[in-house]
Every structure is written in structure tokens, then in C-alpha cells.
Amino acid sequence: MCRMAAYLGPEITLEDFLLSPPHSLRAQARAPRELRYAQLNADGFGFGWFNTEGQPGAYVNPAPIWSDPNLPSLAHSLYGDLWLGFVRSANNGSHISHANTQPFSDTEILFVHNGFLQDFDTRCRPAISAELAPEIAAAIQGNTDSEYLFALLRHVLSDDPDMALETALAEICARVDDWSEDTTALLNFLVSEGTRLYAVRHAINDPCPSLYYCTDNERFPGAQLIASEPLDSNGIWQPVPEHHILILDPEEPPELIEL
């Protein structure tokens, strides 16, 4: 399991989002409060954004977030109005590498997954692989369940370009539910297409991993945030209800959709 966070609002530095809050993702890497199945998130980190043309970009490093000497300078210099962040605790059998470090992206979407699929190699990976279009399967670079879930999301969206992102997220949760049977699947996601934030809090045969959101925070005026654990005590952090999709839009109130 891992920790993740997202920001949507007025332009801020990456430092303000990723490093400065009292319980930032850097702090959660060393001292998570609600992490299950692990004690640290020391197996890599990454952050994602969208450029002025609306295309996603990502920086990933398989080293612990506290060990990257370039990060403080980057974080102080980079500005954005949408950020996704991630610190990793690798599952057994999943290599620590750039290819296995999130966020994942294509030409339109940023994607982060916190959780795991039990018996992934023998049960879910063959099922996902059988679904994928050849060009999407060929783009997979690592061996994580997370990247295969991202590939499945891309496949579902490519099958129906008019499908809403929340509908596609619900569809991949339903497919994993069909494949899981009596095994565990933890399915917390953060996704963005550059305008909105989409969060999923879901699990099969196990309690859902923690996930919170905040829409009124003195540290982040006018912003909306999502995080595995609250980043600070300045706002009212509400848990995303279990088995729900949360949509945050800069022009609309938060929307919750039951899975």
C-alpha cells in the first residue's frame, strides 16, 4: 500500500502541496498514521501535473522521497493549479524501478492507485491482459497491478470515447470484483483529465484504505484537496465514503457517486 494526494485550485508551488504541510506526503512516507500492510513508504515517489496545453506530465523516482537532492529546488520552482502526488510501499514481487513508480499517464490522463490485487499474477493479470487492445498492452512498461489497472481504464475509455470518466472507473471496479471471487482487492484511485479530480475509495473482501477530502482550508484558500491522510489540521477533512467515487470540480460542489 502507498499514500497519495491531489490538489485543485489557485496556482501554488509544488513545495506548498508536496513538502510544506505538517503531514505532507513527505511526512507520510516516513510516519504514516493510517497505513495498513506496511510501515513506511520508502520505495519511490512521484508527482504529476498538466502543462499549458492540457497535456499530463509526471516526475517519478524509485528512491525514497526524502533522498532526492533535486526535489527541494524543483518543488520551490514549479507552479501549478493541479497536482497529484504519490509515495510508494512496494508489494511483494513488484520491482522498485522507474517503470513501477506512479503517477502513470497517457496523452490525456494522470492516474494513481493505492492498494493491491491479491494473487495478481495468477488471477487478475491474465484476466486484464485478455481484455486489452494490443496497442494498450504494448505500452505497459512495468509489472505492477496498478499499471495494469491503468491500462484497463485506458482500454475501457478507448472502447467508448464518450464514456464519462466516473463511469469508466466504476466499470473497472466491477470487473475486478468479478475476477476477485474470495481474494482481496484494494482499489483507491486518484485520476484527473486536467480539469477535475476523481477519487475512488473501494475494496473487495477487506476494509477500504483511508481517503479524505477537504474543500475549505486556510492553508489552501479556494482549493479542494484529496489525501490518503489529512495533510494538516487547518481544514475540515471528511472521509470519502467507502465504495464511492468523489468528483471535485472547480465550478461545482463535490459530487459523490455510490459504486
Low-confidence stretches: none
Q: Please, how many domains? A: 1
Total of DSSP H or I helical runs spanning 4+ residues: 7
Instruction: Determine the CATH superfamily.
Output: Aminohydrolase, N-terminal nucleophile (Ntn) domain
What is the CATH C level class, in words? Alpha Beta
Protein described:
The chain has one domain: Glutamine Phosphoribosylpyrophosphate, subunit 1, domain 1 (4-Layer Sandwich). It has seven helices and 15 strands. It has helices at residues 14-18, 25-30, 71-77, 120-131, 134-138, 145-159, 165-180; strands spanning 3-13, 45-50, 56-61, 79-87, 104-105, 110-114, 185-186, 188-192, 197-201, 203-204, 212-214, 224-227, 238-239, 244-249, 252-258. Helix 4 runs parallel beside helix 6 and helix 6 packs across helix 7. The protein is globular. The mean pLDDT is 96.
